[in-house]
Amino acid sequence: MSEAIQFLPPRPSVLARRDTIISDLLDLLPPECVVHEARALVPFETDAFISYRRLPLAVVLPKNTAQVAAVMKYCHRAGIPVVPRGAGTSLSGGAIPQEDAIVLGLSRMSRIIELDYANRTATVQAGVTNLSISEAVATDGFFYAPDPSSQLACTIGGNIGMNSGGAHCLKYGVTTNNLLGVKMVLVDGTVIELGGKHLDAAGYDLLGLVCGSEGQLGIVTEATVRLIAKPEGARPVLFGFDTSEEAGSCVADIIGSGIIPVAIEFMDKPAIEICEAFAKAGYPLDVGALLIVEVEGSEAEMDATLASIVEIARRHGVKTVRECQSATEAALIWKGRKSAFGATGRIADYICMDGTVPLGKLSYVLEETSKIVERFGLRVANVFHAGDGNMHPLILFNANDPEEAAKAEEAGNEILKLCVDAGGCLTGEHGVGIEKRDLMRHQYSDAELAQQMTVRAAFDEGWLLNPSKVFPLEGRA
Amino acid sequence: MQTSFTPAQLEDPHVAESEKILRRCVHCGFCTATCPTYVTLGNELDSPRGRIYLIKDMLENDRPADEEVVTHIDRCLSCLSCVTTCPSGVDYMHLVDHARIHIENTYKRPLPDRLIRNLLAAVLPYPARFRAALALAKIARPFAPLLKGIRVLKPLGAMLELAPKSAKRAATVAESDAVPPKAEKRGRVAILSGCAQPVLDPEINVATIRLLTRFGIEIAAPKGEGCCGALVHHMGREEQALTFARRNVDAWMAEVEAGGLDAIIVTTSGCGTTIKDYGHMLRLDPAYAEKAARVSTLAKDITEYLATLDLPKLEAQKLTVAYHSACSLQHGQKITMPPKTLLKTAGFTVRDPAEGHLCCGSAGTYNILQSEISTQLKSRKVKNIEATKPDVIAAGNIGCITQIGSGTEIPILHTVQLLDWAYGGPKPAAISQKR
User: Fold this and answer.
1) Domain A12-105 belongs to what architecture?
2) Domains of chain B
3) Across the interface, do B29 and A344 touch by the CB < 8 Å criterion?
C-alpha cells in the first residue's frame, strides 16, 4: 500500500484499554449495535477512497439520538476518537477510521420522520439515503434537489458533512442551500438543534458552519431539508463535440450568456465509453466529448432555452445534438452519468479528483490535466459537473502495482494544485477528507488555516472528532 | 480494488476467478442501497460490500471460515440485486458461490444447523421424499409455533408453516411421454420437471404444456431429468450440485441428439438461473464443459421463450395483476419486461409494486434457515403488493409464490397460468374460488 498520507499515531492509552472500552460500549448499547470482533471490523477499514485503510477499535451502530449521545458522552470522557460514517461512499476518505477510533455508523437511523408539504420540508434521520427522500415525495410532485452521483447509497448525514453537490446543483444549489435545520450531538454528548423549518435563524449561521464540517464539529442525527416542486417537464439533451476544448468553451459561453440549465455535465471519450458499457444509454461513441444539458419547465420554455443553447453550441462546432425521446431514455442517460465512477472499475482502478475552476479556465485545465497524467504515463477519464466548473478527472491505474498507485496520487496532487493556481479550489463537493488534507496549505495561508482550526476547537478542543482529516497534521494547535 | 494473493494461491482456478472478480470492485458502496439484508439490518457486514470484504479477507489469508463470516454469508439471499446495481460489473454470484463452497469445506456447523441442512438436502430435491414429507408436515403443522419458540428448532417450525395446508395431487405430466403440438408445429422443447415445484403446484407445468402445444410447440420428454441442483449449490455442496447438473446435461443432450431441442423451458426461475450457469459450473470438467455450455444456451425461462412466439393481442379484460418480479428472473437472468408485456398483450392490467427490486425473502431454503429476516422481507413485499390493489398476483417462481401466498389473501399464480387461461385454458382454481 502506498502511504504518502499519514494518519495521526494511535493513542497508546486508548489502545491499551481496548477490552474495557468494548465492554463499556456493550453496557451502553444493545449487543447487535456493537461490532468488535477483529474479522468483523475489516469491512469498516475504508470507504470509497480505498487506497487508504485503517482498522477501527470498534464500530457502533446506534438506533437513535439518545444512543449517539450516550456514546459521545462516554468517548469524550474517556478520550476516544470518533469517526462518523454514513454509507461509506466518501471519495476523499472522510469515513476512513484509525486504530484508536470508534466508528459511529448512522446506517440504522434511516427513518423519514416527517413530510411537511405546507412548509415544503422533510425531516429525516441522518442515515436516510439521499435518493430515498426524493422517492418518498415523488408521487406528491416534490423532490430533494442536491443529487450526488452516489445518491442511491449516500446518506443525508454524509451529504451534510461534505456539503455535497450533484448534477442538478447548477440551478438549485448544493447541500448548504437546501438544508434548513439539524439535530446534532456535540462531542460531549449534548444534543442541540440548529435552524428549523424557516429560511433563516436568529444569531450566527451555525447551520452554515456545520454543513461541510466533515464530522469534526458534532454528529448530525436528524436533518430538515427543503423540498422543491417538480418542474412540468425535464429533458436531457446530448451535445457531441470533436474535442474537449470545444465542449469546455461551449459551457463557459452558455453560462456567460445568462442561461442556467438545470445541469451541464461533461464526459470525454474514455468516460463515454465506460458509461455506455454499463448503462447502454445510447451516448454517441463517435465524438471526442459530450455535454449532457438538461432543461426543464413547460414545453415552450424548454424549447426556447434549448434553441438558445443549440445556437451557442453551433458556434463551438457541435457535431451532434440529440434530444432524448422518452422518460426511459432520460433515466438511462442519467443512470449512465451517475454510475460513471463505479463503472470505471470495469477497466481500471481509479482515484477521483474534485477540483473546481472558474468556467473560463475549463478548457485550459482540461488540457493541462491531460498533460500531467500523460507525463506520469497514466490514463485519465473526465466526467464532471461542467456548469459548476467542478471537475472530476478519474486517474486510472493498477492498484496491484504500488509504483503506479504512487504515481496516480502524485498526478492527482499536481492536478489539484493546478486547479487552485487557476483560481479555483481543491474540492467542489467531495470534501477534503484525508485525500486533500496536505494540500490545504496550497489553498490557504497559515493564518487562514489557524482561524478555521480556532472555530473547530470551539466545538472539539481535544481533537476527538474525525481527527486525522481536513487540517494538515503539522502546525495543529 | 487491490488484492494480495500469492502465485501459489492463484493456481487454484476458483481462487483465480475470485481474484478477478474482486479486482473489479471499487468499493463505491452502491450495492448496499439495494441489498435487502442491509436495508433490513443496517449493518455493512450484512451488505454485499461487507460480504465481499469478508470473503476477500478469508480467501487472501487462506483461512478456514469462522462463525463471523458464516453468519453474514448465510444471511445473503443470493437475490443478486447487487449485481443489477453494481456499475463495475462485479460478479458477486460466482464470488459468493465460491465462499459457500469454502465454508462447506472448512467450517463445521453446530449440530442442529448441520442436521437441518442435511434434512433439506436429502428431501427437497427428490419429489417422492418431498411429497411424503409434506404429508407428515400436515400432521405436524400445529406444532410449528412451539418449534419456532425453541432457537435451534426454529427452522423446523418455519418449514412446517410453509408447507401447503392441502396437498396437491401428484402431476401426471412429468413422467409422461412427449406431447404433440395441437397446431401446426413451430418448435420442440423440453420442460424442466424439477423437484419441489411439481409437488407444491403441479398445475404450473400442466398449464405450460397446454399453452405451448396450443401454439404449435411439441413437448419432448427427456428421460432421467430431475432437480437442477440449485438447492444444494446454494448450500455450498458443490459435488452434489454438480452430480445433479451432469445428470440433467446427459438427459437433455440425449434429447438434443435424438430429436433436437429449440429450448429447455424452465418455469421456476430460481432453477433457470442455475441451469443457465451450468456452463460455468462445469467449466473445469473436460467431459462436460462443452455440453453444459450448450445446455445453458438452450435454457430459457418460459416467458423468455413465449416472447419469441409472438402471441396474439387479446382484448382488455377487467383483471388487475400485480406482477412480482422474482429475483432470479430480474437479477439472475435479467428478464424484466417479457412477463409484463405478455400479460398486457393477453389483456391484463399490470401493476408494478414499489420496491420491486427487493427480495420477498423466499430465496430457496432461506425462509427456512433464516426465518426472521425472511418474515420481515415477506411483510414488506406483501405490503407493497397489496398497495397496488390487485385482483391477483403473478410471479415466475414457485418459491416466491409459496412465500408471498403465505402472507396474503390475494390469490397468487404463476404468470404462465394466467396466460394459459387468457389463451383458452381453464380458469385457474385460485381465481375461481376467490371471485
Assistant:
1) 2-Layer Sandwich (3.30)
2) 7-106 (1.10.1060.10), 111-162 (no CATH), 187-306 (3.40.50), 311-434 (3.40.50.1860)
3) no
